[in-house]
């Protein structure tokens, strides 16, 4: 890991995450996820993390690797049709990673997920955190609507809609 990146993580304080994602923003994200999931068969989880800890930085853990850990920890893979998607935000890096379960990963091209990440990152660099999150949820939902259509009129919500804020 580069020294500048290491310093960015070490100087990142928990209050910065709370300022970027206050309760009102988390509630808006939860409402967006809940509404979006009515239009498709997929499940969306949103997780935000301020910075990585020193041991993770020391071993060179990338945002992608951390996103995969979070995907597993939050049991996003534990849906009936393997159509869970995690949107992971690492604030210290202004990095977004999307991890999709195998049922949806094989149907959505990787570059489509990358495009969602890059558009969110552009908004994050402008300090527009809520806009980035809501746009990401909307774009992921659009992809899920194309590739994971609703299965029944009584779709059950398999994963919580409330965003996860890691390490506060």
TrEMBL record:
Residues 21-140 form the TPM domain. Coiled coil: none annotated. It comes from the Bacteria. This is TPM domain-containing protein.
């Amino acid at each position: 890991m580069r020294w500048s990146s290491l310093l960015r993580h070490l100087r990142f304080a928990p209050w910065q995450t709370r300022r970027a994602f206050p309760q009102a923003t988390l509630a808006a994200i939860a409402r967006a996820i809940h509404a979006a999931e009515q239009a498709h068969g997929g499940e969306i989880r949103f997780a935000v993390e301020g910075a990585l800890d020193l041991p993770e930085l020391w071993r060179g853990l990338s945002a992608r690797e951390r996103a995969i850990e979070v995907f597993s920890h939050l049991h996003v893979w534990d849906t009936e049709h393997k159509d869970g998607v995690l949107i992971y935000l690492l604030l210290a890096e202004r990095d977004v990673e999307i991890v999709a379960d195998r049922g949806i990963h094989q149907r959505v091209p990787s570059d489509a997920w990358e495009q969602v990440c890059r558009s969110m990152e552009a908004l994050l660099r402008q300090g527009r955190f809520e806009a980035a999150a809501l746009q990401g949820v909307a774009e992921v939902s659009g992809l899920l609507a194309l590739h994971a259509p609703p299965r029944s009129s009584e779709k059950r919500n398999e994963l919580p809609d409330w965003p996860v804020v890691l390490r506060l």
